[in-house]
C-alpha cells in the first residue's frame, strides 16, 4: 500500500507498507544493501521501519525508486530469489523504461544449469534477444562485451537440444590470430585454434556437468570448431552459434550463413568496435548489418552499455572508452 506526502513542489515522500515482513526484509537486503543500491541509482533517501518504507527525493526519481521496490517485492512474492546484482539490473531497467514489467524479464526462465542456477534475461534487450531467437531462424546479437550475447545464445541452444528440438549444437569462432588460412593438419590446427575456442567451452561447462558435456562432444552432438571447418558443409537440425563475428570477412560470413540446413537456426554474435581484421578487409558482421536487416526470418538485436551484466565496473569502463572514442572523432 502506498501513500504520498507532499513537502514542496520539487521534493516528495512516498510511503509504502509491505504485507509480508519476511519478504520485506529480503527486499531490503543484508544491512539494507539492496536499498542502498536503489538510493544510489535514483538519488533518493529511503527509510524503513519494520514493513513500512518512506522514499524521499525529487518527484520523478522517487516515483522510479518506488516502482522498483514495488516490482522487486512482487518478484519475491512470486518466489524469485533476489540477488544484489538483480537489484542493480532492476534499477537500470526501470531507469531505461519506467513502464517495464520486471516479472516479464526476470521470470523468463531460459535454462536451469547443472549447478541449478536459473538462467534468465537481466535487461530489456536481453529479453528482446531471447524472444528473437525463439521467433526467427537467424538472429544477430551485436554489442559490447559482457552483455550476455553468447551466454544466452548458448543457454537457448542447450535448452533446444534438451527438448529434442534440434539434434546437435555447433559452436563456431573465427581464429584470426591463429590464421584461418593455415593448413588443415588436425594436430597442428587444434593446437593453433584451441585457445580461441576456450570461451565457448567455458560457457558450455558453466551450464552442463563437465562429464556430460565431454560425452556430448565425443559423440558429435556438440561441436566446437573454428570457422574454417564450416566450409562445404550443410547443417540440418542444428543450433549454430557464430561468436566474435566481427572478425569474419565478407566471404566467411556469406559462407557461414549459407551452411544453414533444414530445421536449423543460427545466432551470430559480435562487437563491431572490436574488429581485429586488417584494415583493408571489411568485417562480415558490419556488411551483414547493412545488407540483411529487413529480411523476413532474420532479426537484429543491438546491445549497449546498459546491458552489461558483468561486474558493475565493466559498465563504467565501457563508458570511459566510449567517451575517449567520441573525443577522438571530435578532434578528427
Automatic annotation (TrEMBL):
Gene Ontology MF annotations: ATP binding
Keyword annotations of the record: ATP-binding, Cytoplasm, Nucleotide-binding
SUPFAM superfamilies: P-loop containing nucleoside triphosphate hydrolases
Cleavable signal peptide: none
One GO location term (cellular component): cytosol
InterPro entries attached to this UniProt entry: P-loop_NTPase, PhoH, PhoH2-like
PhoH-like protein domain: residues covered: 119-322
Cellular localization per UniProt: Cytoplasm
Pfam families: PhoH
UniProt-listed PANTHER family: PHOH-LIKE PROTEIN, PROTEIN PHOH
Similarity comment: Belongs to the PhoH family.
Protein name (Swiss-Prot/TrEMBL): PhoH-like protein
Organism of this sequence: Thermodesulfatator atlanticus
